[in-house]
């Protein structure tokens, strides 16, 4: 993430905290409006909670204007005081990242608390969540969910694949183009190729890898209709995917990569031991490297022009 300015985030506007060292005196207070680093950008946020953990302050922040699903615990290195000077720094960073401004509000048009690729992929229907019934119902129940969310499977999507996600978003939402279906290779094909790749690399068939790939396929088939499609792709889905056909037999790498943006959130609700979680994280990272290695084979370089695409223009739910 864009923390080349990381040192500034721990010092700007912090001199008013008194003589007490940071480990004893919180730099930010509950209810305070702040600026928060996330991915390569800075976003407006509000401190919901402040806790001293292992001699370090941690802050539970809500990104202003976005669904509570984005709320998270961050360290002091991710936060800055909401000062005029730091707002200028935020705007300069947005300009460097090529983010368009809304002249009326002065806010970035794509200020979602994720990296530039995640921003565009995850705009689609946050409210249509696979784990919908398990989301926070109210603030009093937040504590229990926060514990599970701290156990997220964490992995970094390679920068090349992030660019792929950005292109994917732009093809569909800005250029009114769609992935031509059925794709080749399909998601099933890619998962099979990866299993073969791992088997040859290790000179044996790994049951654990096969099990994880079955899980990815299952998640993909269930998540695609409700959280992996942009509005403009829904008509195509209903036209192409019949009741007796699995999406993993029709869609390809473009939509599979979108799943990896959502996986940490989905797996937060699964009861997994910490050791198993670590192994799973390593295998998912390896799979992403496999996608990157085969990018030219698995991904389309351009999409098809479309007619009668659902939805017009660019909106927050796109």
From TrEMBL:
SUPFAM superfamilies registered for this protein in UniProt: Chromo domain-like
Residue segments, region Disordered: 1-31, 89-143
Entry keyword annotation includes Cytoplasm: no
Domain of life of the source: Eukaryota
Protein's organism: Trema orientale
Residues covered by the Chromo domain: 27-95
Organism classification: Eukaryota, Viridiplantae, Streptophyta, Embryophyta, Tracheophyta
GO cellular component: histone acetyltransferase complex; nucleus
Name the UniProt record assigns to this protein: MRG
Entry GO MF terms: promoter-specific chromatin binding
Biased composition (Basic and acidic residues): 89-103, 115-127
Keyword vocabulary terms for this entry: Chromatin regulator, Nucleus, Transcription, Transcription regulation
């Amino acid at each position: 993430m864009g923390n080349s300015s990381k040192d500034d985030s721990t010092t700007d506007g912090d001199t008013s905290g008194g003589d007490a060292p940071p480990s004893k005196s919180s730099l930010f207070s509950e209810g305070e409006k702040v600026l928060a680093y996330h991915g390569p950008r800075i976003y407006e946020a509000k401190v919901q909670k402040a806790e001293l953990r292992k001699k370090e302050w941690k802050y539970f922040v809500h990104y202003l204007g976005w669904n509570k699903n984005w709320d998270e615990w961050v360290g002091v290195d991710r936060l800055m005081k909401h000062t005029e000077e730091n707002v200028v720094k935020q705007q300069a960073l947005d300009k460097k990242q090529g983010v368009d401004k809304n002249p009326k509000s002065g806010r970035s048009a794509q200020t979602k608390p994720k990296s530039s690729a995640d921003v565009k992929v995850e705009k689609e229907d946050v409210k249509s969540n696979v784990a919908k019934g398990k989301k926070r119902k109210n603030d009093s129940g937040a504590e229990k969910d926060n514990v599970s969310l701290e156990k997220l499977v964490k992995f970094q999507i390679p920068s090349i694949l992030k660019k792929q996600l950005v292109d994917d978003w732009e093809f569909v939402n800005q250029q009114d183009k769609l992935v031509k279906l059925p794709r080749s290779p399909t998601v099933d094909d890619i998962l099979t190729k990866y299993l073969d790749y791992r088997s040859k690399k290790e000179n044996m068939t790994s049951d654990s890898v096969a099990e994880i790939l079955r899980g990815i396929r299952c998640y993909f088939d269930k998540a695609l209709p409700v959280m992996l499609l942009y509005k403009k792709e829904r008509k195509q889905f209903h036209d192409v995917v019949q009741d007796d056909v699995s999406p993993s037999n029709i869609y390809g790498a473009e939509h599979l990569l979108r799943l990896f943006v959502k996986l940490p959130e989905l797996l937060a609700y699964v009861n997994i031991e910490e050791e198993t979680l670590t192994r799973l994280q390593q295998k998912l990272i390896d799979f992403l490297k496999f996608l990157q290695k085969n990018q030219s084979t698995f991904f389309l370089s351009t999409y098809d022009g479309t007619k009668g695409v659902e939805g017009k223009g660019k909106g927050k739910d796109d």
